Amino acid sequence: MNPAILAIVVIFTPLVAFATAMLFCMKAHRIAQGLILGGGAVSVVGAFLLLLGGPSETQSIVWLSSGSLELSFGFMFDGLSLSFGAVVALITFLVQVYSIGYMHHDPAKTRYFALLGLFGWAMLGFVYAVDLLQALIFWELVGLASFFLIGFWYEKPSASAAARKAFLLTRIGDTGLLIGILLIINISGMAHIPALLDAETGLTTMVSEGTLTLLVLLIFMGIMGKSAQFPLHTWLPDAMEGPTPVSALLHSATMVAAGVFLFARLHPLFMASETAILVVLCIAIFTALMSATIAMVETDLKKVLAYSSIGQLAFMLAALAAGGLLAGILHLILHAVFKALLFLCAGSYIHHFETNDMREIGRRGGRRMRWTTAGLVIGGASLAGLPPLAGFFSKEEVLASLSHGGYHLIWFLALFAAFLTAYYTFRMVFFIILPDRPLEADATVHDSSPVILGPIIFLTIATVLGGLILGPLAAILLLDVPHHSLLSMLPAILCALAGVFVAWWDFGRSRATRRGFVGAVPVLHRLFSRKWYVDDVYQAVFARFIQLMATVLHRVEVDLLDGGADRLADVTRWTGGWTARLQSGWVQAYIASGVVVVALAGYFLGSR
Amino acid sequence: MIATLVIAAFMILAMAGAIYAALVPHTLHCIIGLGLTLFGVAGIYLYLGSPFVAAMQILIYIGGISVAMVFALMLSVSLAKKMKHSEIKVILSSIAAILFLAVMARLIMTTEFPLREEPAGAAAWGVEQIGHGFLTTYSPLFIGLAICLSVAIIAAVLVARREADKS
Amino acid sequence: MGIPILSLILLCPVLATAAVMLVPAGRDQMVRWISVAFSLLALILSAIVWMAYDQTVGGLQFEEIVPWVPAVGITWHMAVDGFGVLLVMLNSLVWFTGVLTMWSLAYRVKEYFAFMTLLVVGVYGVFMTQDLFLLFFFYEIAVVPMYPLILIWGSTRKEYAAMKLMLYLLVGSALLFPALLAIYHVAGLGTFSMVELGRHTFGIEFQKFVYPFVYLGFGVLAGMFPFHGWSPSGHVAAPSAVSMLHAGVLMKLGAFGILVVGIRLLPEGATYWAPLFAVLAACGILYGAFVALRQTDFKFVIGFSSVSHMGIVLLGLNLGVLGVASADAFNGAVFQMFAHGIMTALFFSTVGYIYDKAHTKTISDFGGLGSQMPRAVTIFIIAGLCGAGLPGLASFWAELLVFLAAMKTYPILGAAIVAGLVLTAMYILRVFQQAFFGPRNPKWDGLTDMVGWELLPRAILVAVLILFGFFPNLILGLIDPTTQILMEGF
Amino acid sequence: MSLSAFLLVSLVLFSAGLVAIMSRRNLVTILVGIELMLNAASINFMAFNYYTAVDPVVGQIIVLVIIGLAAAEVAIFLSILMVLYRARHDVDVEEIREIRG
Amino acid sequence: MANVLLILPELTIFLAAILVFKCLILGLSVLHVWRVAFAGSLLGLGACLITLGMTGEPFHPGIYRVDLFSQLMKTVIAAALVLVLVLSDSPPVMRRDAWRELPFFLLLSSAGLMMMTSATELITLYLALELSAFPVYALIVLHRDRRMGSEGATKYMLQGMVASAVTLYGMSFIFGLSGTTYLSEIAAALPELGSQPLFWVGLLLLLAGFLFKLALFPFHFWAPDTYFSSPHPVATFIATVSKVAAIAVLCRMVAVAGWNEASIDGETLRIVLIVLAVAAMTLGNLAALVQKDFKRLLGYSAIAHAGYIVVALQAFSSLGHTAIVFYTIGYLAMTWICFMVACEVGRNRDTVPVSALAGLWQRSPMLALCLLIGIFGLTGLPPTVGFIGKWFLFSAALEDGQFLLVLIAALNSAVAVYYYMRVLRVAYLLEPAKEDTGILAPSPLVVTGAMVACLVVLWMGVAPNYFWEIAAEAIVALGATY
Lengths: 608, 167, 490, 101, 482
What we know:
The structure holds 5 protein chains of 5 kinds.
Chain A: H1 3-24, H2 29-53, E1 56-66, E2 69-77, H3 79-102, H4 109-127, H5 132-150, H6 157-188, H7 193-197, H8 203-206, H9 209-226, H10 235-238, H11 244-253, H12 257-265, H13 267-272, H14 274-297, H15 301-321, H16 325-353, H17 358-363, H18 370-384, H19 390-404, H20 408-433, H21 450-465, H22 470-476, H23 486-508, H24 522-529, H25 534-582, H26 587-607
Antiparallel strand pairs in A: 1-2
Chain C: H1 5-22, H2 28-52, E1 61-69, E2 74-80, H3 82-101, H4 109-128, H5 132-143, H6 146-153, H7 158-187, H8 194-199, H9 204-221, H10 230-237, H11 240-265, H12 267-293, H13 298-322, H14 326-358, H15 369-372, H16 374-387, H17 394-409, H18 411-436, H19 452-470, H20 473-487
Antiparallel strand pairs in C: 1-2
Chain E: H1 2-6, H2 8-26, H3 30-50, H4 68-87, H5 101-118, H6 122-141, H7 146-178, H8 183-193, H9 197-214, H10 222-229, H11 232-256, H12 267-288, H13 294-313, H14 318-345, H15 360-363, H16 365-379, H17 385-399, H18 403-428, H19 444-462, H20 465-480
Helix pairs in contact in E: 2-3, 2-5, 3-4, 4-5, 4-11, 4-14, 4-20, 5-6, 5-11, 6-7, 6-11, 7-9, 7-10, 9-11, 10-11, 10-13, 11-13, 11-14, 12-13, 12-18, 13-14, 13-17, 13-18, 14-16, 14-17, 14-19, 14-20, 16-18, 16-19, 17-18, 17-19
């Protein structure tokens, strides 16, 4: 089958499902659910068929022609898009299955599933996009889907505020991306990605080093917005207001990864500019450290996972920036798998205990939920980077690429971040499985329904066997498989184990203080728990500035422009009043003024 | 020589009468002033060679119009009552009038009119020329004047009659 | 094409006005059916024109020339190029949905529909005519009925708003009046036909002198930045269908006038003045967005968003004139005219519905409306997102093209405007959050959601937005050849 | 006597008429002013007739017409004056200022 | 015989007047008198239409000229007279015994005005001016409120007589300089005369009388007061018929100076006219902004429209004159409609305040629609003749580069929108006042008159070609006199 038609099927079935669900079966929940799941299944099968079909040349048609400008719409079937497309389709389908259980008793079920369908369409459209502009379009549609999904329970004020914040911050990032793309189109006259990336005739040859850095940094601004890197990351923790499957799907595995994917897609461009790489590395490593420190003091289960996602995304970006294309992509895929697993387990707990607080879950017998706890532990271990699991392989690759790239300081800081990751992950695990108070004996805690557990189990298996995909992925990406000596792997493993030990020391032990080593330094503790005051700074600076400008211009409108016009009208009417008073009713005055004017006119006529 | 003296006298009489009529506070004196002016103007017409028009002037103007004015005055207000004559109005109006006078005088002085070689002969001034003119070339004028006078009379009568009813 | 289809389209509203006037008093339903029938007929005819328009050739088609006052050189010269076809279709769409939106009007229905259809006559006339005098003739016919419409059927501060609107627009056309006459006399061709006037090249000094009069004259109606005072208060006071026509179509009249008279007849003048007016338009975009942030009334927010979006149209026109990226600029400007027209019509139609039911327009009164009126809210959200320039809806392509041209001509200015998009998103989302999301407000429990026929007009507009959002080449194919022709001047 | 002398006399008469109209209080005296202005015009016509006119009869006919019209004018003016007096019991120009604005 | 045929219109009107006078004397009923007068005016209109095509000089050549221009103007005057008579069928606003005299005086005045249009000799012109003025003075006095009627009449008469005296004075100078009183000979002697400043001052003084009738700037003071104080039909007559005659005479006077191709440097007079026109427009529009009385408002709008007409007059071009003739026809119809509404609404009121129009759309939709068309016309908005009329007027001015003047005129008409629209606001938005909520049912004759007038206003506005052709031919005929 021609890959283009298959791609169309993969991408547009979720859209069709979304449209039919929204328009026709708002009331019929079951049909809507079935439609969306069917759409999800078709796209999974299609994506894997495409993956098995292997890379083929891109196909596109001219979508918009204005004057000399030709913007195309089509699909790229290289290794990157096929592999990530398959992962996205798979996880979307799993979350849809999971949501059946999770959203079972929610009245607006149809709208939820329809929005998932919309998201599926947007994300897959973005992954296979061939044209920068087409990528931007689906990029913003993904943002839209996240807006609706975060604000799904719109009756909760905090949810709608979070949705608005998410949309605005991603929007700020998108502005940078849009400006970058517009400049690229203006300079190169085209937006066709393969043509841009072409070594001989691509963008790099057309433009000087300085402008290329500017363009690339503008695009990175978009990535920062979408993948929640340092300046624009504050929306991701708030996005946890949305239902947990949404957090699992969008805000950990797929949507936030779109930024990293775009980075990987335009990798040659980034590599061509030194300064850009340095900037990305610094931002990435700072984000990783910052998010890890905040996660250490966070008590909300989903918030911890959110901050860990920010950290892991920073790792991927660092790897890509350091030149490790394979490392970045591998970590991207594997992280999607085990982070989705962690979120689904968290969802299962929250679904059962109706609370996000880790300690509460632990105290009320979280560990009695066999499969969920197993998933949590394995997911946590993989996140920490313990050897046999998927996380270890991808983290190893990331650290290796950093050291190969020669960025030893960044490598060292990354190691420290890995240590912190392991620490807060197992802090979370110990909170849940080793609660400070002994469990009540008769707490009737039973594990979630099979429809929730199914995806968890599948992902657990995937996390365990994750490491195996290294070979085939390298093959499909046409990259050679890197071989690391045991010695080079040692520092990563040691850090992970140290992290686990310190976590056990602070939280696992029966006599543990359960306040974490950071508790010792109250200043740092407050800094981290207030999320480095970033939100407050934004609120104080930007929000107030916008409001101020709005008030000032509102005053300008009311007094100057509008008021000015009214003043002018009053003045005219006032002069009208006075001219009317000229009409004094006094006949002799009339005649006198007539005579005077005629005399003056006579004088004027006479003098010429 | 005497003729110029006589015409000068008539001119002065006319101008003095006019100014007197304009400025005297008492109403009846104003009409008397008008009478003098009209008499002066009649003299000027005589000098300008048309005795018939001078006669008409005296007959209609002094005989008819001035007397009508006196009757109107008697009907409307007691003769003796002297209207308060406001000074400012006189000053302002005379300024306007003098302005007009100056402008026109300068113009009259500076333009040279296409004078005829010698004034027309007496024959051209006879009454039958006027009659001939009225009936042939200027017939619409004659008819129009007749209509105009009759309309004025009818209008005056209809307007000024006692109202039949107190509506 | 044999039959004079353009005059037929123009005839529809004329006949509608006449028919409505002849309907005996009290028969409101009959009045409504007449208006719907004629507007539907006009819509079909415009669709036929769209289909029959030969896009490969571009240029003026469906030409009808009838001498009107030959002694002075006025001819009934009706013809339509790419832009004309698009805007005639816009007018038909907004008219048809406008009539449906006002279906529930009960107060003095006969006069209402008479005045409204008169307005539509003016708009059709302007988009179709190629005669300078008839352009100004129809331009004023379109402005005239606004006063009685707002005065009698308006709402907040209607008398003040109606008078302000009328004075602003007529002072604008007073500026235009001598300019058009000057163009006619200086050209000395003895004809008002814009085709000949277009061929005649005017003196540079003359163009520089007259162009600002033309631009300001038409710009006032197009809601250009410093003189937009009338449009927000006009929108707020006008009944919903009138503000649909007003913001949706009337403001495009101004922009179309600038394009046809200012840019086509006075190219050098346009190039000379373009930088100043481009900066003004850019200020308009940001200014409109900022002020919209502070508004407490639905219609005011939409009013100022119209000012902001019309700023994009004017920016596009001015950038096109500068010649750096004129193809994208002109295409973007005309596309935005259409897209913004449909979007604002949708906005006002929905707000009109909400106002009819809840009788209040202040945003803070509502809250959690999503639960009571899900359909109305969804439609409003679609319109809002289109305003925020979201892909998949028509405005995205228009704004993209204009921003593209802006980036090429003035990169810093372009960047500032693209940043302005965030502001647009901010005030749109602020409205969503305050009015639609948030806890359910029991006060509005009595509100009923949109029923079948109420949904029809809004559904049509949404479908159009999405259709041209997904397939922009449908429009660009139509207007691109005309832009090429227009571009020869720059 | 030269033509301009006559013209000056008529100008003086005209200006006196203007002053009378603009400054007098009693409407009858204002009528006097109007008569003065008409006479000024007649002098002009007679003077031009005597010095410059192609056919001298024209001026005389004009003056006769003017005299006729002046009489008609006086008739209508005084009748309206009577109505005014009957309505207001005075003929003062200062009083009739109700209609204004 | 041919001569009689030439002056048929004036003759018919005079005969009708005499007939009416006979009925007056016999003391027949008001209705009978009115019916005779109305029939007479219709006959007069018929006569004008018959003689429309004829040209000739009935009396001594040069005094009284009958050509297409004068006959067109007479037809317009006759039509206006018919329309005014339609409104003056026993109007309660006049004294009961004056009802029978109203048609008589109207007929006489119209006859005088008709004579004015074709008089081409100065003194005939003056005589016609006086003849048309006297009946109007008489009519204003016959107001039922004697105080107002007498005051209004006196003031109007005073200013009228001063203006005609000034005109006469101006005529004397022109007679002196050119030696003749025939316009054709004056035009022939123009080239040398043009150099004499006294000639231009004389011409200005001559125009004073007619600018007074037109209500242009220095002589405009009478318009608001007289419109306010005179009975409604009389005000209609003054606003429409006498204005048309004034415009006709002004066109003829300016044509004397010849059109710009042959004329000498009439530049200075043009500057004076421009200044007067701008002053009239600005003063008229500004003062009207604060008016409370509808007729007084129409007075100020008449001053403003005088300014617009003089803007075209000062162009001294055939296009300008054609535009003026075209606009006069339209202006007559528009003003008549507004005054018709004033007459109907203020039937038994001494004055017609704008508040009396309140709720007109409820009291009589037909009148409201007519008012709408009339007001849109006066404002100069498209479907009506006001728009295209103003377009041609200002086009004439702009033909020789008066951009600033046209801009001022256009801005003035934009300011005028304010007070015109306030009238519509009162008529269309407000509820009728408590005491006058009765349904207004105008008589069928008035309704037909209104329909005809509205039809003319809209027809000329939308398809002006027919009227423009006639006006152009008339101006060609006017040009042929010199």
